[in-house]
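User: Could you walk me through two proteins back to back? I'd like the raw sequence and the structure tokens for each, with a short line separating them so I can tell where one ends and the next begins.

Assistant: Of course. Protein one, sequence then structure:
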Amino acid sequence: MADDPQNTPGNGSEDERQGATGTGAGNTSSGTVGKGAEGGDQADAVKEAETARAAAEKRATDAEAEATRLRRSNAATRGTDLDALREEVRQEFTEQLVRAELRVAAAGKLRDPADALALLDVSSLAGSGGDIDAAAVAAAVDQLVKDKPYLAVAQTGAAPSWGDVGAGPREIAEPEPATPFDRLRDAYGTA
């Protein structure tokens, strides 16, 4: 029973290993370990330590297995409500769709469409049953632009006119000189 990994204090196995007081069983030497004829005591001590270590490892493994079993048992008896889980997933998905709809609606109206996500209540724009009211989303973005016009895209009537900056092809006022000598004559103003 000394090699039993299930031995625990109080089972009597420790008394059997060490011997009861007043009996001749067990380790009866009272000298120092490892000297002279008592060298076998050291081997017994090592074997006893290994046995105790194996027993402790076995108890730890059993405790982990029991904890896992109890977690599973608690999860099974807790009663997971599948309808509640489905509703939670549906609500998260609907909110994601509303956020996407907000980004689309704000794309041409706001400088940064993420402002609409930060400033508008997404949960209030989700319809019942997971439907999204596109008109309500557009109205909310329009109201945001009306309330905070500095978020809106700058509206200009026409594209900005830069005028003539001297680039591109030009109309020639005088005909091109035919020879390089004519070009020099025109440059120095000699006739």
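----
Protein two, same layout:
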Amino acid sequence: MSTYNFHGQVSGSNIGDNGRVEIHQYGTDPASAVAMAARLVRWLREEEAARAAVEQAEAVHGELVSAEREQRPADRGRIRSALTAIEPYVAVGSGGLALVQGIAGIVGM
């Protein structure tokens, strides 16, 4: 993954909320996936997304935490179906979509 740091306003187009772009670098290890999933849960709650979306994000986070604790691969099928269910609730260009895509990339989907 590449890292792009934007500080202050972005000139030109309006990208994201109030013309700000926030891109965070996460690693590719299980701990990064767990952190991203926790952030996705928080983001959906902050955006007051449908309860179904929050529950699916919690399922992703729970699966990743369990897999890390049990030192086993995460259940990709379970994560894939949950992320697919979340996608309609996140807007293109939003932090939520970036998190969904980031988690999918880390778990190899």
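Confidence is low (pLDDT under 50) at residues 1-16, 19-26.

Let me know if you want the two compared in more detail.
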